[in-house]
Amino acid sequence: MNNYPLISLIIPCYNSKHTLEKCLDSVIRQSYNNLEIIIIDDGSTDGTSKICEDFQRNDERIKVFKQENSGVSKARNKGVELATGEYICFVDSDDWVETNYCSELYNLLVNENVDIAIIEAIYEDENGKVVFNKPISSEKVFEGKRALALLLEDRIIQSHPWGKLYKTFFLKNVYFPENLKCFEDYSTLFKIFDKAEKVAKSNDKLYHYIQHDDSLSHNLSPETAYYFYLAIMEVFKFWESTTQVKNQRRITKSVIRKLLMVLKRILRNTTKEEMYAEKEKIRQSFKLFLRYPATDIGLEYYFYLRMYYYYPNLYTKLILNNDF
C-alpha cells in the first residue's frame, strides 16, 4: 500500500504506560501501512516516554514529539499541526484498533467519494466486557448537513475524534479548545462536520474504546460537569446560528437532557455556596430554552426548565431528595 496516500495517525498520550504498548502494537500492524504515526507525549512521568522511544527505534513511520503537560487538546492540535498526510485519523493511547481500521476508513472515504469516513466502536471495560451498545443506522452515506444534524443529536454519529478519517485540510483551521480539561471533542467535531459535503459510515466495529472506571467523562466531578456545560452551550449556540441544520426536536431535547444531567451532578455534589456563580450561569442560560413548547421537548423537560429558572431552591431540594 505504499502507493496509497499518506495517512497521519495521531496518538496523544499522557502517563499511558499500562495501555500504550497494546495501542501501538495495533497501530503498527495496520494492513494500510502508508502511515505517519505521530505520538504527542504530553509530559508523561510514568515510563510512557520509554515505550514511545522503543517503538520509534523499530518503526521509521513513528514520530514522537514531547511537550510539557498541557492537556489532550494541545496534544491533538500539535499533532494536526505536524501532520503531513493527505488524511488524518486519531487513536487514543488507552484504546486499540483492528488491523483493518485505517484501510476500511480509507476505502469507505474513497469508494463513496466523501469528506469524512466513520467506523463503529466496541465499548468495553478494561477486561474486554462490552459495557454499551450504541444505536446504529442502516444508512451508509449522508448529505453533509444531515450528518451534522445527527452529530448534534449525538446518537447515530457521536462527537469523538477517533473512529473517523478526515481530509487533512478540514482540520487545519479548527482547534480543539485548550481551555477545557475534558469534553473538548464535543465542542470541536461540529466545526469539522460543518465543512463536509458528504459523510459515509460503516457499522463495522473496528475501534476498541476502553472505558476506565476513573476516567473524567465516566465519573463527572462538579467541576468536570461544568466543563461539559460549557461545551454543550457552545454546540447549542452554533446550532442556533445556522439555518441549514433542522432537526429541532431531537437536537433540542438532546441538549436539554445533557444540561439537566450536568445540573443534577453539580447540585448533588456541592453545598449551596459552592460553585454559586456557575450554578447561576446555568440557571440564566435556561432562559434560552423557555420558548420551546412542551410539544417539542416533552412535558418533563418543559417542567424542569421552568422550575429551576424560576424556583432554583425548590428544584434543588427536589433533586437532593428524589432520584430523577
Form type: globular
The value of Rg in angstroms is: 21 Å
Biggest β-sheet description: 10 strands, mixed
Mean pLDDT: 91
Number of helices: 12
C-alpha end-to-end distance: 54 Å
- The beta-strand count equals 10
Strand content: 15-25%
Helix and strand pattern: EHEHEHEEHEEEHEHEHHHHHH
Oligomer: single chain
Would you identify the CATH H-level superfamily of the largest domain? Spore Coat Polysaccharide Biosynthesis Protein SpsA, Chain A
Structural class: alpha/beta
Q: Which ranges are low-confidence, i.e. pLDDT below 50, for 5 or more consecutive residues?
A: none
Query: What would CATH call the class of the largest domain?
Result: Alpha Beta
Number of domain units: 2
Instruction: Please identify, by name, the CATH architecture of the largest domain.
Output: Alpha-Beta Complex
Bin the helical content: 40-55%
What is CATH's topology name of the largest domain? Answer: Spore Coat Polysaccharide Biosynthesis Protein SpsA, Chain A
Notes on the structure:
The protein has 2 domains: 7-210, Spore Coat Polysaccharide Biosynthesis Protein SpsA, Chain A; 222-321, no CATH class. It has 324 residues and is an alpha/beta fold. Strands 1, 2, 3, 4, 5, 6, 7, 8, 9 and 10 form a 10-stranded mixed beta sheet that branches. The chain is 41% helix and 18% strand. The mean pLDDT is 91.
Give a brief rundown of this model.
It contains twelve helices and ten strands. With 324 residues, the protein is an alpha/beta fold.
